[in-house]
Amino acid sequence: MNPLCTDELRELIDRHSAALELFARQWTENNAADVVQAAFVKLATHPPPREQIVCWLYRVVRNEAISAARAATRRKRHETGRAELAKDWFVPNSDNRLDAVEAARALAELPQEYREVIVARLWGGLSFQDIAELLEISSSSAHRNYIAGLKALRERLGITWIKNNP
């Protein structure tokens, strides 16, 4: 396997780092940027087959974020006990029709299997097949979780959608 050239790596970072960081925040708020950086370092040194790079990045970020979250939990238990962290899922923008704080709260309240699929699909742009491989579930389960998660978000936010919209 040939290593990626600098331009290819730069393009991947520019295109995917923000969505990967958002994806990592599901498990580790404070270390999300570090987790994404570690994933890109691994990519630079041990690249997967080129057609699997994006999905591979999501898997590495997920695994690293879960590990970082476990380490943080151990550290908190030994140092300060429980402290609740604010989760900024969205950047507030006055042009949005949704209240960013309310939407972030609603997304954070969803079950993890819904959050993972919604973030990977909407912000990561992954296909349901990619999400299925990432989460080790079937593509139909990924789609089902996506639809159920969107429905739950709509209910929590009090949004009515057109009949044909998922």
Fold topology:
Layout: H1 6-24, H2 32-45, H3 53-79, H4 100-109, H5 112-122, H6 128-135, H7 139-157
Helix pairs in contact: 1-2, 1-3, 2-3, 3-6, 5-7, 6-7
Task: Give a description of the structure.
- It is a single chain.
- The protein is mainly α and 166 residues long.
- The protein has two domains: 1-85, Rna Polymerase Sigma Factor, Chain: A (Orthogonal Bundle), CATH 1.10.1740; 89-166, Orthogonal Bundle (Arc Repressor Mutant, subunit A), CATH 1.10.10.
- It is 65% helix and 0% strand.
- Helix 1 (6-24) crosses helix 3, helix 2 packs across helix 3 (53-79) and helix 6 (128-135) crosses helix 7.
- The protein is globular and about 50 Å long.
- The protein starts with 5 loop residues before the first helix and ends in a 9-residue tail after the last helix.
- The model is unreliable at 81-89 (pLDDT under 50).
Give the key terms:
Arc Repressor Mutant, subunit A, 166 residues, mainly alpha, 2 domains, 65% helix, Rna Polymerase Sigma Factor, Chain: A, 0% strand
Give me a quick take on this structure.
The protein has 166 residues and is mainly alpha-helical.
Number of helical regions: 7
Poorly predicted ranges:
81-89
- Gross geometry: globular
Number of domains: 2
CATH topology of the largest domain: Rna Polymerase Sigma Factor, Chain: A
Classify the oligomer: single chain
Order of helices and strands: HHHHHHH
Largest sheet: none
Averaged pLDDT, please?
81
CATH class of the largest domain: Mainly Alpha
Could you tell me the radius of gyration in angstroms? 17 Å
Structural class given helices, strands, pairing?
Answer: mainly alpha
Second rung of CATH, namely the architecture of the largest domain: Orthogonal Bundle
Number of strands: 0
β-strand percent reads: under 5%
**Helix content estimate:** 55-70%
Report, as a whole number of angstroms, the end-to-end distance.
41 Å
